[in-house]
Design a protein that fits this description.
This protein is α+β, with helices and mostly antiparallel strands and 166 residues long. The protein has 5 helices and 8 strands, in the order ββββαααααββββ. The strands form 2 sheets. It has a 6-stranded mixed beta sheet with strand order 3-4-5-6-7-8, with helices on one face. Strands 1-2 form a two-stranded antiparallel sheet.
Length: 166
């Protein structure tokens, strides 16, 4: 069986009933990997695919909201965002400044600005549920795949949480 959608095209299911779609989307001066997945195509509605397509099409606004959520996390010394930035400062030392796109003197904000959006994973079967519908993966250094921040989004596009990968 398969599902056809205007944006995603023909989504064929695998032998186990799962669906998967992947494409690189140009975003600013970088390429972001966007994956759409669901373990069972019967759990994916056309409405979920419409919401997913809207998110992919409005990646710039989604990224803006995600970065604002990261900035809001800076109020807490124990937030995952603050911990991530402190870890990067310790790990990179003076080399951190080389990765920053804009050095304003506010290192925490500069790091959030410099984070690269690496991927967006859409969990199409989670539409309307309590679990994340989409997960954005950010990294300061694209080669350091373990040092990432994950921003979890609800199907309405609101930020549910910001976590580190560990």
């Amino acid at each position: 069986m398969a599902i056809e959608h205007d944006f995603f095209g023909l989504l064929e299911s695998g032998p186990d009933g799962s669906i998967f779609w992947s494409e690189n989307v140009e975003f600013g001066d970088q390429s972001v990997t966007v994956d759409l997945t669901a373990p069972d195509q019967d759990d994916v509605s056309v409405e979920a695919l419409d919401v997913a397509a809207s998110m992919v099409s409005s990646l710039e606004a989604i990224d803006f909201a995600a970065r604002n959520a990261m900035v809001n996390e800076l109020d807490s010394r124990t937030s995952e965002v603050t911990e991530y930035i402190l870890q990067q400062q310790t790990l990179l030392g003076d080399e951190l400044e080389d990765l920053l796109t804009d050095v304003t003197g506010d290192t925490h904000i500069d790091v959030i600005k410099a984070l690269q959006l690496m991927s967006m994973t859409i969990l199409a079967d989670e539409h309307g549920g309590a679990d994340p519908f989409a997960v954005l993966e950010y990294a300061l250094d694209p080669d350091a795949t373990d040092d990432v921040l994950l921003v979890n989004l609800a199907s309405d596009g609101s930020v549910q949480s910001v976590t580190s990968a560990d």
